[in-house]
Design brief:
alpha+beta; Arc Repressor Mutant, subunit A; 3-stranded antiparallel beta sheet; 4 helices
């Protein structure tokens, strides 16, 4: 997968970085529960960049994002699901 994502022409550099981070954190169901702050910290980018990049990945169909909240209405980490596997020819 790593080679395929590097050579994939459909995604920009930040999209590749965030996608790879999500993929590394994902479980066997291809899901990861992460906050935007944690993604920003581990990818060394701003929270605003994470927000834009996640939106782009969702729009392109690579991932989905589910906002989660507790019964008291406070938000917790988002649930990200990976839908696409990269291909070199994309």
């Amino acid at each position: 997968m790593k080679n395929a994502i590097v050579f994939n022409s459909e995604l920009g550099s930040l999209e590749k970085l965030v996608y790879l981070y999500l993929a590394c954190c994902a479980n066997n169901k291809k899901q990861a529960c992460l906050s935007m702050n944690k993604i920003a910290k581990h990818c060394s980018i701003s929270r605003a960049s994470v927000k834009r990049t996640i939106s782009a990945l969702v729009k392109k169909g690579w991932i989905s994002k589910e906002s989660r909240c507790l019964e008291d209405g406070n938000y917790v980490s988002n649930l990200y699901t990976i839908h696409k596997e990269p291909s070199i020819n994309a």
